[in-house]
Amino acid sequence: MQMKLPAFKMTDQNGNIITEEALKGKRTILYFYPRDNTPTCTTQAVDFTNHLEELRQQGIQVYGVNGDSMKKHQNFIAKHDIGFDLLVDEDYKLAKELDIYKMKKVFGKESMGIVRTTLLVGQDLQIEKRIDNVKVKNQLTELLDK
Asked: Where's the Thioredoxin domain (predicted)?
């Protein structure tokens, strides 16, 4: 059962407004991650950056999404040389619509937050694949069925 990506309006790390229209006509990896500059989130962003050329050759663009500020995104990109834009999901609006923002347990403590999720969105904005509770180590293999 395919689902269409909901309409959204977010800013990237530079304050540019990005809407679902920016995704039309290209396949897009839209991945949701909890926080900038944490070990697993850094590994995930660096992994996408390391495979960016290969993804672009397949006509796939990448966006990372979480609730962190533009400034935090800028620092994260600069510190780890991330090669794609990070979007600010203010108030976790899109994450909530996609049921990605929910109660989770981290180190035995329950709190609301983004559950690491990756979407492969088609040119027509249909979600072709959704991976919940992503395991960063094999995310691209699982996503692209390599």
From this structure: 1-145
In a domain, 70, yes or no: yes
Is residue 145 assigned to a domain?
A: no
CA atoms of 16 and 101, how far apart (whole Å): 24
| Per-residue pLDDT, 28 | 97
- Name the residues annotated as catalytic: 41
Give the residue numbers spanning the domain of 34: 3-138
What's residue 1's pLDDT?
A: 55
| pTM for the model | 0.93
> Phi and psi (nearest 5°) for 18?
-120, 130
> Is 28 within a domain?
yes
Specify the number of domains making up the chain: 1
- Torsion over CA: 49, 137, 132, 34 (sign): negative
- The overall average pLDDT reported for the chain is 93
- Report yes or no: 96 and 117 within 8 Å, Cβ to Cβ: no
- What contacts 28, CB < 8 A, 6 or more positions away? 60, 61, 62, 63, 119, 120, 121
Domain-embedded: residue 100:
yes
Question: In which residue ranges of the chain is pLDDT below 50?
Answer: 146
